[in-house]
Amino acid sequence: MKKETIPLKLNKSAARTIDLLLLLVSSDKFLTLNNICEMMQLPKSSAFELIQTLLYKGIIEIKDDKQKTYGLSLLAFEIGSSVITNMGIADAARPFIQELNRQTGSTVFLGVKDKDKIVYIDKAENHSTIKPTAKLGSRRNLHTTGLGKGLLYAFCDTKIIEILGEEPYASKTPLSHTNQKEVLEDASNTRLRGYAIDDREDNLDMYCISSAIRNHENESVASFSVASLYSGMTKDKEQLIAKLVKETALQISRKLGFAGNNLYNINS
């Protein structure tokens, strides 16, 4: 983690505490004290104090007593969930993504944009199926994930480039789009189809079909994706899922007050 200069008026301890929580959210594994010191560039004594404070408050917990690894607790999840509940999007979308999961047999994710990332806030899955690796609360690239692309491409080209920043864009697989030309061409194709496709661009085993969700002010406020194994994807299955995704996206958007018919008409 890049070490930041703390502005004069900010509380350094509070800023470091939040940095630690964000680190635990973004990590795909539980972290040791040494991991945290290295990634945050902190002295061991400072990192230890932060950890002990968060343990005492119940925000994090020890995940492995032998290896002394740390991760977020259920209390942290409850805090995050309360924010999502207040947004209203998850409650409105949940019955629809559950039905889509039942219809397709694939895991369905719901997400919202946070700066240049997509945050996974809900999912519907079958316990008997092979599950994608994304976990709730995780932050992924907007331009490589189906969930991210579904939302990103509902913005105009200028906004897309502003959000993604400087080239080259991060690559997750050899199929990831890493420059403006590739991304904007993909965005154009998405708008013509009415849904986005992640063809092994974030995970070589996964094929995802997704769409934006708009609200009563025609804002692109969320997205959802149907995540399937690439090895099991056929043309017929893709066409069926795409049809269901377009229908479901419009249903959820209607629930949020959207009055249009085209979720990818950026001029509407």
From TrEMBL:
The protein's UniProt keywords, in alphabetical order, are:
DNA-binding, Transcription, Transcription regulation
Record GO terms (molecular function): DNA binding; DNA-binding transcription factor activity
Domain (HTH iclR-type): residue spans on this chain: 11-74
Top-level taxon of origin: Bacteria
Residue span(s) of domain IclR-ED: 75-258
Gene Ontology BP term (one): negative regulation of DNA-templated transcription
Q: Which InterPro entries match?
A: GAF-like_dom_sf, HTH_MetabolicPath_Reg, Tscrpt_reg_IclR_C, Tscrpt_reg_IclR_N, WH-like_DNA-bd_sf, WH_DNA-bd_sf
The protein depicted here goes by the name HTH-type transcriptional repressor AllR
Q: Which organism is it from?
A: Gilliamella apicola
